[in-house]
Amino acid sequence: MVELDTRYLGLDLSSPLVASASPLTGSLDGLRRLEAAGAGAVVLPSLFEEQLTLEADQVGRLLDAGADSLSKALTLDGYNAGPHGYLALIEKARATLRIPVIASLNGVTPGAWVEHATLLEEVGADALELNIYYVSSSPRVRGSEVERRYLELVRSVRQRVGIPLAVKLSPYFSSVANLSRQLVQAGADGLVLFNRFYQPDLDLESMEVTPRLVLSTSEELRLPLRWIAILHREIPVSLAASTGVHTAADAIKVLMAGADVVMMTSALLRNGPEHLRAVETGLRDWLEEHGMGTVGHLRGMRSQRSVRDPAAWERANYITMLAGYPDQVHTEAR
Ligand SMILES: Cc1cc2nc3c(=O)[nH]c(=O)nc-3n(C[C@H](O)[C@H](O)[C@H](O)COP(=O)(O)O)c2cc1C
Prior knowledge:
By secondary structure, this protein is of the alpha/beta class.
């Protein structure tokens, strides 16, 4: 019998397969189904800085002003139950589920809203995931300033909670490796690689911007795959792979690269929570076929720890790939 026991953020998980933040994890019913399908842990949908800031700043004032942001924030309450409903969901989930329940905050700036992290801990969240979703659009703000804000926010949350803290990052930094190291020094126990930005499109008829939710595919796995392979054991931190995990093969790849856990959203939205069981079965079968009794045997087998100079290795692979053109091009036509 293959053992899937895993440690993530210092927590003991029965499986490395985790349901990441999405509407599926936003109700007790969804959470129960995910646990029954074999999830090792669940991450609740995020509470947004805007929702918490509005509470602190008196909603009434904004109602009078008819602020657009208010209606947006109220719409969000339909997404994640709002600040009060969220605390109740954690309490209920904690009382009902045996697997760890990870709460999630989504914000950008340190401020009073961060106090809410303490409440999440008080009602029983086993860990906290901080999703720093920020698209810096000012040509005047340097990359170093953006990084400074991230670190300040992480320090600010770290000071308020004793539970493990994971940071969900975007891949768009000039040095993901250096920022990761600094985030760990600022108090992160885990990194979730990566957050997926929702990129708006343009409608050619209405000529309007159209927000479009496009679920991921396995093609997107290679970004987290690369960075997990680079960071595994390079810095002392738990690593979660997020974006593009759809099949058992995807999960095996990121575990082989060094992920502690494998997170899934799009695959579960597309196929239902029960898809987790199929991925688990595929993972168990593969481990058995390859004579591995635990998932620990697989973890990090193909990280870049074995490569003396990963940057040179990356460049060499790039050049080899170009030199092999067109034999290595995979298109529908070929
Ligand atoms: C409908 C939807 C809602 C999501 N809500 C959140 C959220 O509240 N907080 C968060 O950190 N990520 C959220 N995500 C991002 C997912 O947790 C995940 O990181 C992303 O979809 C990439 O993983 P995937 O390829 O498995 O979908 C959401 C994704 C989708 C599709």
